[in-house]
DNA sequence: CAATAAAGGCAATTTAATTTCGTGGGAAGT
DNA sequence: ACTTCCCACGAAATTAAATTGCCTTTATTG
């Protein structure tokens, strides 16, 4: 099955409300509940829908500090990269880790309770990795748009 | 109601699978379905759960190009910032827009079908905004970690 | 220690998800 | 152009889940 108009609409709605009932979804896209459900299940089976996530309010949960952190490595071997990635994988503070082109190798998204907690992360996690050469922090003051939240 | 052990577990599970059935969720956290449901609804009412989203596989949907883009403004007035933010708001290619500290003002996350489409965005959207002074693109080669996807 | 409030569990009810089955419309082949 | 076949549809029945009402338990406080 290819992604036609109906499936596009289904994905669009599920991106907005991943917990919409199948009946309401069917109604919105103009299909019967059974046809709609079959499409959703097929999209899941194909891996086009990878999953569903609840979106939490970090502020209300005590997360008061978010930043992007760029990291440059001193060595660029495969081993060195893997070691870094493994260390990052373990760290709860790091929500995202992207390997990017440009003057530094990695762009991280980090979230902590406050600046003090960030400093700890900065020193104990990043500062402790031998392959890390440069660290630059860009504190998020405001997120004007965040469609993935 | 404060966030006790049960609610923490509920949030944890919903972050992983936002569409888990209430019965399964109740079972996982060790509550009865009714008690569990009341907690979830309370968390939603308090805005701690902001919503639910389906997570899609962009690659399978024809998104082959993702990048972080830093933007510096030539003017730093409130008006200028608002004009920029409004333009960004309208752009489908921009998934995130963060106002950050550092040598540039904004960090964007942009996704397009391919490099050609990105060039169009770069020229027609960013290049067309009078307040934009500097643009720097950091292509994502790989995302080692992305807990928000 | 009793009163009261807050949260829990059970069971009944409402609502939704899922399955089954028959039908129609379009594609492929003759 | 006709026939066959297949795919996806919708309707209805069935199964399962969400939700509600009510009573019980637990925890708090005067």
UniProtKB/TrEMBL annotation, chains A, B:
PROSITE patterns found in the cross-reference section: HTH_ASNC_1, HTH_ASNC_2
A molecular function GO annotation: sequence-specific DNA binding
Pfam families given in the database record: AsnC_trans_reg, HTH_24
Keyword S-adenosyl-L-methionine: no
GO BP terms, alphabetized: alanine catabolic process; regulation of DNA-templated transcription; response to L-leucine
Keywords: Activator, DNA-binding, Transcription, Transcription regulation
GO cellular component: cytosol
Residues covered by the HTH asnC-type domain: 3-64
Family matches, as InterPro entries: ArsR-like_HTH (IPR011991), AsnC-type_HTH_dom (IPR000485), Dimeric_a/b-barrel (IPR011008), Tscrpt_reg_AsnC-like (IPR019888), Tscrpt_reg_AsnC/Lrp_C (IPR019887), Tscrpt_reg_HTH_AsnC-type_CS (IPR019885), WH-like_DNA-bd_sf (IPR036388), WH_DNA-bd_sf (IPR036390)
Record-given protein name: Leucine-responsive regulatory protein
Record CDD domains: HTH_ARSR
């Amino acid at each position: 099955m290819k992604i036609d108009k109906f499936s596009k609409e289904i994905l669009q709605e599920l991106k907005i409300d991943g917990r919409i009932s199948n009946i309401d979804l069917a109604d919105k896209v103009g299909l019967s509940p059974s046809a709609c459900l079959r499409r959703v299940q097929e999209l899941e089976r194909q891996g086009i829908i990878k999953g569903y996530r609840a979106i939490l309010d970090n502020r209300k949960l005590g997360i008061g500090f978010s930043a992007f952190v760029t990291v440059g490595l001193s060595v660029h071997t495969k081993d060195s990269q893997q070691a870094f990635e493994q260390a990052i994988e373990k760290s709860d503070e790091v929500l995202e880790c992207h390997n990017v082109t440009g003057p530094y190798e990695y762009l991280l998204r980090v979230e902590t309770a406050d600046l003090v907690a960030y400093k700890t992360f900065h020193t104990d996690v990043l500062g402790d990795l031998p392959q890390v050469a440069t660290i630059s922090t860009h504190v998020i003051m405001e997120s004007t748009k965040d469609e993935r939240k």
